[in-house]
Amino acid sequence: MHKGIDLNEGTANCQASVRKSSIKIKDSSREKRFFSFATHKTMKHTFITLLFSSAIFFSHAQEPGIIHYPQEKHLQHVRQLTNGGDNAEAYFSFDSRKITFQATNAAWNTQCDQIFTATLDHFSPVLTSTGLGRTTCSYFLPGDSTILYASTHLSGKECPPKPAARADHKYVWPIYDSFEIFVADLHGKILKKLTNSPGYDAEATLSPKGDKIVFTSMRSGDPELYTMNIDGSDVKQITSGLGYDGGAFFSPDGKKIVFRASRPSSEEAVKIYKDLLKEGLVMPTDMELFTCDVDGSNLKQVTHLGGANWAPFFTPDGKKIIFSSNHVQKGYHFNLFLCDLDGGNVEQVTYDQVFDAFPVFSPDGKKLIWSSNRNNGGTHDTNLFIADWQ
Questions:
Q1: Domain of 337?
Q2: Fewer beta carbons under 10 A from the terminal one: N or C of the chain?
Q3: What DSSP character marks residue 164?
């Protein structure tokens, strides 16, 4: 979700020496691909890609060596997991002991996002995707021995091209129609292709009950949310409003879904949205959070904050939503916030001065993992951080 605006976010106090992660990368032939300045994929994360690259312009305001600010009272024992490149969308295994995430890092021989997995007690990421094309949105399946993720590799081993600079200077990101969703083991072997429809299929996440997947698809002509069984059967469309629906996650009990969405309403906004969509592009600068039941009923708009509100995730008790937003200081300044299910009682959680996003709780409710530009030495690197939640 990104490309050219203003970002900033918070962090916390407490210095920590960060070891560079050792990376195990399997041998595979790769062609040269264009270098992407951010780590978020597709719709769900491409938005952040430019957010990340722009963050470099704000790095002068960062406090060197700080990974935890005093104001971040919900976070304890903050630990930096990665040190370099663009790392994002980290999701826990069912036993809360491992994570899967996507990364772009020339040092790891990845010129655009690829999927990695790692245990948290001995953090040493292993390349789990094919190393071809572009990937996004990986998630552990029941048993923690397989993951699902979206990839463009069937359409070519190269990274798909990024959009050319626009004369109208609109901040946009691409919806690659070559994304399909796959299941793979932790050794990188693809076991099954779950989707097979024209257009974008990506942003898949799994219910905590282990029975349903929610994902975003362009099969109707507009980016909508769909559910399916974990074997790819029983596909059902659950949203239908004009605009991009994506970044969806289930509630802890598996009964509700929270997601981000754009809802162009004026004649001009609708025209701009439809014209960009014809080019395979979306402009993600105006998004709010929504919830609905798993079947799409009881659709409710949660936030009315303005700006870009995205990357929502239910708190462990299911009573609140944590999300990333730039509503306090528009542009690229993103921090994490909490709100009630009706959007009330908004509370700031992080205070990084550039960018915090992709907050995710561990299944046992004890940990929060997220991506941040804090402590990046004045670069545009986006790293993974984990903390005890309280």
A1: 42-389
A2: C
A3: P
pLDDT, residue 327, reads 96
| Interval 10-31 mean pLDDT | 34
**Tokens encoding 194:** 């779950």
Asked whether residue 51 is assigned to any structural domain, the reply reads: yes
Residue 100 in domain: yes
In one letter, which amino acid is 371? S
Q: How many residues does the structure list for the chain?
A: 390
Report whether pLDDT(33) > 50: no
User: Rounded CA gap, 307 and 238, in Å?
Assistant: 25
- Per-residue pLDDT at 252 exceeds 60: yes
Q: What is the mean pLDDT of residues 8-22?
A: 32
Helix (H, G, I), strand (E, B) or coil at 276: helix
- Does the residue 363 lie in any domain? yes
**For the chain, how long is the longest CA-to-CA vector?**
54
Number of domains in the chain: 1
Give residue-wise pLDDT tens across range 85-108.
Answer: 999 999 999 999 999 999 999 999
The DSSP symbol for 274 reads H
Q: Is the pLDDT reported for residue 48 higher than 60?
A: no
Helix (H/G/I), strand (E/B), else coil: 339: strand
Q: 13 lies in a domain?
A: no
Euclidean distance between CA atoms 380 and 48, whole angstroms: 12
Q: Starting at the edge strand that comes first in sequence, how are the strands of the sheet with 300-301 ordered?
A: 245-250, 256-261, 288-293, 300-301
Q: Is 1:173 a contact under the CB 8 Å cutoff?
A: yes
302: domain CATH number is 2.120.10.30
Burial class (CB in 10 A: 0-12, 13-18, 19+), 61: exposed
Three-state DSSP at 272 gives helix
Residues 133, 134, 137: CA angle, nearest 5 degrees: 145
Q: Which helix (H) or strand (E) holds 190?
A: strand 190-193
Give me the residue label for tokens 């990845």.
Answer: 110
